[in-house]
Amino acid sequence: MVYGLTGRVALADNVQVKVASINLCADQLVLLLSDDEQIRSLSMLSHEQAGSYFFERARAYPVNEGHAEQILNLQPDIVIVGQYSNHHTVAMLREVGLQIKTLPIANSIETVFENILSVAGWVGHEDRGVALVKKLRHRLANLEAPQEPRPLAAGYDPNGYTSGALSVRGQVMEYAGFTNVAALAGIEAYGKLSLEAIINLKPDALIESPYSPGTYSRAQAMNQHPALLAAGLNPHVIHVPSRMTVCGGPWTIDVIETLQAERIKLMGGY
Amino acid sequence: MRLSQAKLCALLAVIALLLFIASVVIGRDSLPLFAALKDALSGGDSVYAVILTQIRLPRALIALVAGATLGLCGAAMQGLLRNPLASPGLVGSASGAAFFAVLVLYFGTGLVPAYVLPVAGMFGALLATVLVYVLAGRDASVTTLILAGVAINALATAGMSLLLNLAPSPFAVRELVLWTLGDITDRSMNDFWLMLPTTLIGWAMLIGVGGKLDSLTLGERTAQSMGVNPVHLRWRVFIAVSLAVGAAVATVGMIGFIGLVVPHLLRPYVAHEPGRLLAASALGGACVLLAADIGVRIIPTDSPLKVGVLTALVGAPFFLHLIVRSRREYL
Amino acid sequence: MSILLQSDGVSLKRSNRLLVNNVSVNLAAGELVGLVGPNGAGKSTLLNLLAGLVKSDSGTVLLDNKNINKISLQQKSQRLAWVAQSGPVNWPLTVERIIALGRRPHLSAWQKLSREDKAAIEYAIAATDCEALRHQDATTLSGGERTRMLLARAIAAQPKVLLADEPIAALDLKHQLQTMQLLRKFAMQDKACLVVLHDLSLAYRYCDRLYLMNEGSIVAEGQPCDVLSHEHLQSVYGVEVVKGDGELPYIIPVREL
């Protein structure tokens, strides 16, 4: 599903807010919610297939390396930065009088919605944000009620990185009807899941979303580990493209729906 | 090779000045320089004037001052320890500064005012210096001093690793790691004014140590018999380097190899005299950091290159070359 | 004769070993004094104490009748020069520059060498036969050449008191004689020189007075002919010697006792 802009009617008496973004996740929401001619610049990463959901659309716009000088040259009305953007740059931009909007890291589906509403407001299209969030909430509410017992799943990225309940990916797993083993391993937000923990917790599925797609899959390799085989484990590996998990957005609901379908397939196989 | 001290320093100063001007002129994006200059001088606030006076000027000034600090302190440490492998990082203040800066980044990124970071860095540098003093004792030998410095380095590095380990999210890790790489991008005049006093105190403390370092060529005992108090000299250089390097690291992060390689490079041109090397290395260090900082703007890379990475990339092989050459000479 | 340097019952203890035990020596203007004794007798340590490089545990050292620890380092270094047994040279400076370092005690931080400074350096270079070495890299010198250079550095300082630790140990015969004559000449300019020597024949021949040291104490002092008696040499060195006390005195060790 592609989220284009519907009803792109620029109001003639409305002066368009010119926006520049130096943060990948802000790029996505800017592309989603503003009009073409509003966008002065996006972050360099927005052109990357691996992390940028709208990478194709982003390629129509100039990119910046997140330097104050470049941004200043573009003379945007607002600059959207991330919570962890280079603070020297942010301080500098603020000092030279640009209006800075800081996009928080989304740690829940609810913050994803809040971010959508914030960016929509910043770029002067509050209505679009409200409409989109309403639609997304509707889709969330219409998800099939999960069946008990919920299958166990673990988010599993290179080096055993996993996400707990206080993260978008953790919540996505819950919405999709899985029980996230991260909570059982004592991980709240982000952490590492050891091989031992996996053998102990016996997840039915491993959900991987490595940043470099098409290369070696850690989760697949995990399945081959003698310890796992010896323990009689053969978790179902679900691959989610990283551009759908790096940042939160409407596609996050797509991921939930995909995982739900995978869960139903998995349970049917029992 | 046979260049008088005045001529050598004048030459290096001219190069530094040219690089300084180049640093203001050259950017990733071109700037209508005359228009910008005209506007800046007439007190205007066009975008170009702002870029010139508030972005490029502080960047060039900080590169100049931090580079000079690294070169000068490298030469002072090598002279004090009579070892061409000594570097300003040995005193522990650089990693102390880095640790406290990372601590601030970890706990309050985006929440605290911008000046808190360099101030915390300088506090870390001073704390590391005081710890070394307490650890080594007043009459510490050079070896004890180095060991204490190494211990503080290890402690600060361990602290940084801990913060990276406990960082709340992958994004925070990225920010912390990038900070330690050393970078001068988007520093403001405020950053420059903050680093300046501590830097100047450090520099001032090194004024006049040249002759003492020369005497030290003949060993501490002989130098002592020639009127040098080795304990005083040790602490004077140590504290001076701590202050100046701490200020530099707090502002630009860790920039390696300049303090190591620049004195090495210039030593033959000052007839290997540690005293004369000080001024030459300060100017040389300023030249190298200015050049490297111009380099990261010119070299086309996908991700912006950090100046600390460039100096390490160029410095490390060069250093290897020096070692191989000296081995050929002495074996 | 005025006493330029004297110690009054100085002792130094390091890790429970008495390195220097209640030693009183003095150096008068115009004197070349030898300090002899077997290895480990404490000669170098005594020299360090006399040069004020190490603080004694008890007793005092007086330079110009002033406690040496109360004189400023600069003043002390202008009055007294000390030459290490085998001093390091850490950077490849030229020999000339090393010798010029001898003038540092007389210069402030930024002062350049004056004509007098240069004359003192030239004298020291000529006196130690370092002319040919002048432009050489000081780290490439042989042991003997280095000793001469370091002695030249001390001579260039034009001190009143010179303390030299085994300055002729590494020298060839010609330079041994040259150096002993240089030290004599130095003392004759109303200055004082204390030199640690192992060559007893040269000590006998060139020194006005000798101190014989053993196990941290001075066991004999006075004229060379008295200090270097058969009994002293036997009890301190544990060797039997053949010696001649004539115009050209000599001492040759014959066998261990």
Q: How would you briefly describe this protein structure?
A:
The complex is a heterotrimer of chains A (270), B (331) and C (257). Chain A is an alpha/beta fold and 270 residues long.
CATH architecture classification of the largest domain in chain A: 3-Layer(aba) Sandwich
**Major sheet details of chain A:** 5 strands, parallel
Q: Which percent bin holds the helix content of chain B? A: over 70%
Q: Which structural category do the helix and sheet elements of chain A fall into?
A: alpha/beta
Looking at the chains present, what oligomeric state does this protein adopt? heterotrimer
- Report the structural category of chain B: mainly alpha
Number of helices of chain A: 12
Number of strands of chain B: 0
How many distinct folded domains of chain A?
2
CATH C-level class of chain B: Mainly Alpha
- What is the 3D form of chain B? globular
Our estimate of the beta-strand percent of chain A is 5-15%
Number of helices of chain B: 14
Q: Compute the gyration radius of chain B: what is it? A: 20 Å
The number of distinct structural domains of chain B comes to 1
Which stretches of chain A of 5+ consecutive residues score pLDDT under 50? 1-13
Largest interface: A-B, 27 and 32 residues
H-E order of chain B:
HHHHHHHHHHHHHH
CATH superfamily of chain B: ABC transporter involved in vitamin B12 uptake, BtuC
CATH topology of chain B: ABC transporter involved in vitamin B12 uptake, BtuC
Helix content of chain A: 40-55%
